[in-house]
């Protein structure tokens, strides 16, 4: 059940991020509305809470589960690139956006394979 909620919040988080990027290009005035500013924080907080719950539920708190550390590091990079994406304009914005999406893909592959170095 927690995994289903976690996957749902992942989907909402991605939709929220991509939606805000699109809105910032097309209708930036909408981004000033309170709900548009607060909702992503609520979604991402619930995403992190369900992720932590899954760690405890799966018994993955041991250091031998390094793939979780890799996901957390990639998540922090994704957050940083997301902030850059929403603050910058021009070409740099799109490089940051591509990097953020690459982080999401990496996190997804690591979650499925349970291997932080799947590419080796």
Walk me through the structure.
With 120 residues, the protein is mainly alpha-helical. It has helices spanning 2-26, 34-58, 66-87, 91-113. It has 2 domains: 1-61; 63-120. It is 79% helix and 0% strand.
Residue stretches low in confidence (pLDDT < 50, at least 5 long) are none
What is the rounded distance between the termini? 33 Å
- Total helical elements: 4
Number of strands: 0
**What value does the Rg take, in angstroms?**
15 Å
Strand portion, in percent? under 5%
Overall pLDDT score: 89
Largest sheet: none
What is the chain-wise order of helices and strands? HHHH
> What is the overall silhouette?
globular
Number of separate structural domains: 2
Helix content: over 70%
Structural class: mainly alpha
Helices and strands, with pairings:
Elements: H1 2-26, H2 34-58, H3 66-87, H4 91-113
Summary keywords:
120 residues; 2 domains; globular
Give a short overview.
The protein has 120 residues and is mainly alpha-helical. It has helices at 2-26, 34-58, 66-87, 91-113. 79% of the residues lie in helices and 0% in strands.
């Amino acid at each position: 059940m927690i995994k289903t909620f976690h996957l749902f919040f992942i989907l909402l988080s991605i939709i929220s991020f991509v939606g805000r990027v699109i809105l910032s290009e097309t209708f930036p005035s909408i981004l000033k509305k309170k709900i548009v500013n607060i909702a992503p924080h609520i979604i991402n907080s619930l995403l992190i809470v369900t992720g932590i719950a899954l760690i405890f539920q799966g018994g993955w708190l041991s250091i031998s589960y390094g793939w979780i550390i890799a996901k957390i590091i990639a998540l922090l990079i994704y957050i940083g690139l997301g902030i850059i994406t929403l603050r910058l304009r021009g070409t740099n914005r799109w490089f940051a956006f591509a990097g953020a999406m690459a982080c999401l893909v990496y996190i997804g592959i690591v979650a499925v394979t349970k291997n932080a170095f799947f590419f080796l």
